[in-house]
Write a sequence for this structure.
């Protein structure tokens, strides 16, 4: 018969059950849904793209510090206050009409706690514009390309002017169509 | 720079505020089409005479449909003057001015207490910012429509996703929607346990067996929990396990009924 000890704290109970909180120590106290977010939009796009942070340990709060180049283009919105481990913090990245340029902008978003220390690896955000687009999104973690290297190379091509936002968006759409993991749902598997 | 955004009285932060700019969101693309509003209201079972609140009411499309086609008394909260004016004209044009109220306010400050149905079509972060306030202040029967994006941690009303695939319908103040049982793990030999999925901030969690308090017999890995987290509950040797939980302030301070039972 099992022996129940009601005084068990969370860590002891989890240890008894052979479960551990994921990566609760070290510098990676949180994780993001994507390490590199790409948004290709109409130059006058006026809306959100989103990012999710999941806490791996209890945090007092998370704040977004964008590179100066991104700070001029996006406004982030999110809840403040403590975040319990496992809890997801969504961050809205608001784009403003006319701020996103054809040849692309890229930079890092640092996610820090109240003391200014990073809670996870910075997230790269790349933006490009074309008047034929509405909004096409992709990401390095769950994006449409088979390999991360392929995704990074595609972004490099955009930033170097070797490929237009329109062509890259078409390639992403094609990747979406042929992705074997794509469910039948109209809610596309890698878009937000 | 970081210290500027750590004011504990604030419930949200924006980089625009960091830069000292005016807070505001103007996102025309987020205006929901009329068909989506109708489908959302049907999924939320909006009834004639009920009070409808739209957080970020834009040009008033939803307000006019709620008032003219569903017989509701609609209130819109909007930040932009020109959008409020357009909504006012739309209500006049459709002859429902007497049942449409427009407020120029910060949607984070509006009191949702008297409303039966609340709608928001914002980004997921705004839904997240508003969630705790709605949990605390809405009546038990109130429904929340979140168009497009989920509210992190909340559990949609069963079947509502089948009724409308454009978003989610919640009852965040209904005790039955504040926690649910997740996976049960019996295969761990003499340490079987079950997951309790937490959908609202819970101030206390008490295990019961056959309806009797059993904190001395059943271990849980947290005595309180936050929306969007999971509590592990070790299963008792015999009897039916239930959990009694209490929410934080306001209307949710009463102890709720048994949330669920493992069968």
């Amino acid at each position: 018969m099992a022996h129940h000890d009601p005084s068990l704290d969370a860590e002891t109970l989890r240890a008894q059950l052979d479960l551990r909180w994921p990566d609760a120590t070290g510098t990676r106290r949180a994780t993001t849904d994507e390490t590199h977010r790409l948004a290709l939009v109409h130059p006058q796009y006026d809306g959100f793209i989103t990012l999710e942070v999941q806490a791996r340990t209890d945090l007092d709060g998370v704040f977004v510090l964008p590179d100066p180049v991104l700070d001029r283009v996006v406004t982030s919105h999110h809840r403040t206050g403590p975040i319990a481990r496992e809890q997801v913090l969504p961050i809205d990245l608001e784009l403003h009409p006319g701020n996103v340029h054809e040849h692309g902008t890229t930079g890092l978003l640092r996610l820090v706690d109240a003391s200014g220390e990073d809670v996870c690896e910075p997230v790269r955000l790349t933006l490009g514009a074309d008047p034929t687009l509405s909004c096409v999104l992709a990401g390095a973690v769950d994006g449409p390309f088979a390999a991360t290297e392929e995704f990074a190379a595609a972004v490099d091509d955009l930033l170097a002017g070797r490929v237009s936002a329109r062509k890259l968006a078409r390639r992403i759409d094609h990747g979406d169509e042929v992705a074997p993991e794509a469910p039948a749902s109209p809610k596309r598997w890698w878009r937000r | 720079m970081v210290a500027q955004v750590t004011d504990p009285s604030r419930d949200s932060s924006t980089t625009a505020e960091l830069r000292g700019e005016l807070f505001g969101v103007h996102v025309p693309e987020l205006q929901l089409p009329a068909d989506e509003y109708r489908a959302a209201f049907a999924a939320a079972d909006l009834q004639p005479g009920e009070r409808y609140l739209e957080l970020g009411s834009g040009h008033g499309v939803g307000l006019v449909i709620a008032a003219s086609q569903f017989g509701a008394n609609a209130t819109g909260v909007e930040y932009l003057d020109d959008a409020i004016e357009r909504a006012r004209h739309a209500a006049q044009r459709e002859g429902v001015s007497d049942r449409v109220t427009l407020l120029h306010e910060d949607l984070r400050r509006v009191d949702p207490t008297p409303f039966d149905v609340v709608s928001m079509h914002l980004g997921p972060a705004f839904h997240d910012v508003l969630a705790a306030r709605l949990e605390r202040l809405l009546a038990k029967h109130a429904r929340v429509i979140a168009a497009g994006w989920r509210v992190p941690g909340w559990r949609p009303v069963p079947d509502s996703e089948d009724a409308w695939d454009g978003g989610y319908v919640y009852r965040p103040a209904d005790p039955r929607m504040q926690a649910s049982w997740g996976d049960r793990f019996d295969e761990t030999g003499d340490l079987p346990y079950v997951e309790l999925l937490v959908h609202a901030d819970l101030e206390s969690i008490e295990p019961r067996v056959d309806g009797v308090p059993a904190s001395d017999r059943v271990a849980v890995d947290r005595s309180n929990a936050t929306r969007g987290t999971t509590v592990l509950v070790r299963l008792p040797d015999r009897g039916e396990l239930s959990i009694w939980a209490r929410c934080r302030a306001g209307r949710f301070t009463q102890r709720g009924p048994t949330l669920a039972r493992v069968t």
Remarks:
- Residues 165-178 of chain A form the longest helix (14 residues).
- Strands of chain A lie at 30-32, 36-41, 48-55, 63-66, 74-79, 88-95, 105-112, 123-129, 135-139.
- Chain A touches chain B through 53 residues (CB under 8 Å).
